[in-house]
Amino acid sequence: MSKLNALHNDCYFDLRYNGVKFKNYVGVFQVDDLTIEILPKIDSQEKDKKLWHDVLISMLKVTKKLNVQKVGNANVSKQNLHLLDIYFDWFLDEVEKLIHLGLIKQYNRETGNVKALKGKLEFAGHLRKNLIHKERFYTTHQVYNKDHLIHQILGYALAIIENFSKGSSIYSRCKSVQLDFPEVKQVSIDHRTFSRLKLNRKTSAYKTALEIARFIILQYAPNIKHGQESMIALLFDMNSLWEEFILNRIKYSARKSEDHIEVYGQRSKRFWQNVTIRPDIVVRKNEKITIIDTKWKNIGSSKPSTQDLRQMFVYNEYWDSSESILLYPTPDQSNAPNFSSYKNIEHSCGIGKLNIINDGKLNLEVGNEIIDWIKDR
Fold first, then answer.
1. Where is the signal peptide (predicted)?
2. What Å distances lie between residue 346 and 4, 277, 293, CA to CA?
3. Can you tell me whether residue 243 is helix, strand or coil?
């Protein structure tokens, strides 16, 4: 765990004596057969583990980081099903669909000894390898088969799932998929490998499978080992997830609203030289602009930090906004923003507290509440 954290600039957690203090990342990571799930929480009630497990899955679904329909709601509702299992199930679904449709073949270059001269003769290799075997030719030639980069990526992801799902139902399903999957060469895969992929009309069906494979492979840490143990981590920055969720819900509510409301996310303006500033969400209703900055923490009765207030002041100035909102989650009833004006300045900043739980599940109508806050001003 220490090596994994160091590899990512110690952003996941702090290691303490006989303990771990997690930071603002949520998700799951597995070391050998030990699986640790980190859930988002804004209260201290231990009894709400399943609630926050479901909240995390729902947030990932809304922000398109997870397609729960591909896995099936019956599987997602199981309390003992980890986020890692959901991604594995989703990937296996996609690969099974590709096998059913028919896996594509591609031309690729192959270098080696053949019994007939074809392609380009590699003289140096031919002299080195075939000094005795005069009947062979060492050539580089094109072959048309299923052993190409796309299938090598999918095969690598299947091998990771096989390694991390032993002893579960996913393991037997993975082995079954591997039997129907063609044998491909084992290659080294990193983020540069995915940048070389160019999908076309023929390979467009592979898009979703490759996106999940990218997520699984790049989070796999085969170089971090203790003995024979390897590690995989699927972790999300909760601040970013909270921001994307709120942006998605406000956009959804704005589209249904009869008022003309425009919603933008992460719009940049130059601040100083090449430095830019970007508020999380900008809402425009007619000529009125409201800036929203999301913070995933239970602020309670505390005041926002001076740095946050200064940040909102700058946003108001640069976007000609009359008001801005610091938006926090709360385990209690939602509270509309309580605005306070900056001294001798026309614009103001409010603290909004939003309860995202309704009837024991994630409240998908929070966008309506925020739109109502803005319309009532």
1. none
2. 48, 21, 19
3. helix
Tell which residue, 252, 286, 312, has the closest CA to residue 377: 286
Per the document, the length of the chain is 377
pLDDT at 46: 55
Kindly report whether the global pTM for this prediction surpasses the value 0.90: no
* 33-53 as b/e: b if 16+ CB within 10 A: eeeebbbbbbeeeeebeebbb
Question: Higher confidence at residue 273 or residue 66?
Answer: 273
Q: For 103-116, what is each residue's pLDDT tens digit?
A: 999 887 878 888 88
**Amino acid 215: pLDDT:** 84
Within 10 angstroms of residue 304's Cβ, the number of other Cβ atoms is 16
pLDDT at 206: 95
| Domain ranges across the chain | 2-104+147-237, 106-145, 257-376
CATH architecture of 257-376: 3-Layer(aba) Sandwich (3.40)
